[in-house]
C-alpha cells in the first residue's frame, strides 16, 4: 500500500484546503468544518483547472421555496476557479450539478498530528 504524510493537521483550518503532493501527483487536501480531512486530485474534471486556486464555499438547499434560498454545507463545497463548477467534499467530490461526475479522491487517515493519504 502506498501512503504518504501530506501535511500536519494544524496546516489546514476547518473549512479550508491546501495543495500538497502524493508521490508525483498534486493533491488537494480539504478539512471540513467538522474537522474531517479529505483528499482529491487537484485538477478540475472539466478543463483541468487547479482546484486549490478556487475556494471553499457552501450551497443552497434544493428544497427551498421559489425565491427563498437557504445557505447550507458551508465549508463543504469546492468551487473551481475557472468556470465555477462545484464539488461536494463530503460526498466523494461529486459535482453538485451532476452527481454522476466526481473528482478522483484518495483515502485519508490521521495519525497523531499527521494527515496521511493512501491508496
Ligand atoms: S475547469 Fe473547472 S469548471 Fe471549468
From TrEMBL:
Print the keywords alphabetically.
2Fe-2S, Iron, Iron-sulfur, Metal-binding
Q: Which Pfam families match?
A: Rieske
**Entry superkingdom:** Bacteria
InterPro entries linked: Rieske_2Fe-2S, Rieske_2Fe-2S_sf
Domain annotation Rieske: ranges: 4-117
Q: Which CDD domains match?
A: Rieske (cd03467)
Name the chain's protein. Answer: Rieske (2Fe-2S) protein
Q: Which organism is it from?
A: Halobacillus seohaensis
Amino acid at each position: 500500500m502506498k501512503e504518504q504524510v501530506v501535511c500536519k493537521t494544524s496546516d489546514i483550518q476547518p473549512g479550508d484546503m491546501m495543495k500538497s503532493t502524493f508521490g508525483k501527483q498534486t493533491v488537494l487536501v480539504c478539512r471540513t468544518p467538522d474537522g474531517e480531512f479529505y483528499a482529491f486530485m487537484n485538477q478540475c474534471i472539466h478543463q483541468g483547472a487547479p482546484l486549490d486556486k478556487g475556494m471553499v464555499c457552501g450551497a443552497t438547499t434544493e428544497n427551498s421555496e421559489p425565491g427563498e434560498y437557504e445557505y447550507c454545507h458551508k465549508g463543504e463545497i469546492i468551487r473551481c476557479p475557472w468556470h465555477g463548477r462545484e464539488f461536494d467534499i463530503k460526498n466523494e467530490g461529486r459535482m453538485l450539478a451532476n452527481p454522476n461526475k466526481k473528482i478522483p479522491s484518495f483515502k485519508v487517515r490521521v495519525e497523531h498530528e499527521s494527515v496521511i493519504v493512501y491508496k
